Amino acid sequence: MKRKQNQEELRAKQYLQSLNYTKIEYEPLGNVTPDFVLDDKIAVEVRRLNRNFIKNEQLVSSESCEIDIHTNTKKNNLSWNTYELHKNIQLVINEKDKKIEQNFSLYNEWWLILIDCITDEIGTKAFKELKKVQLNKGKFNKVIIISSNEEFRTFKF
Question: Model pTM greater than 0.85?
């Protein structure tokens, strides 16, 4: 029995339906990676992009934590928002990269879709600045960040 799609998976599915694929299958292997498969060849993992930290070698969400850092602080010549985006995107990529290992060879291509729950809007200065930063995509051919609000805005790398 397949589980019900969560909010992020529903948002990702809406985005995938806007692309030119004839078949979008949810959890083709059951409740394991990948979340979706496009036309039997592209595997898609989906996750919320939120603030995280590492504790005991595990990725832990800090959504409920208040982070007391002034937004004008510069880290590695990046604004705080860009630094937070970069750090959290890379943490999530690293987490998902390990997760897809078990079924990696089953598909020609892997995408990671992240639903942005950190910023208010993808078109912000932080995302424009993020284009200048090197991100390691791991095993993923594409990483796509989608806005969580009604209008579809995407950031791809």
Answer: no
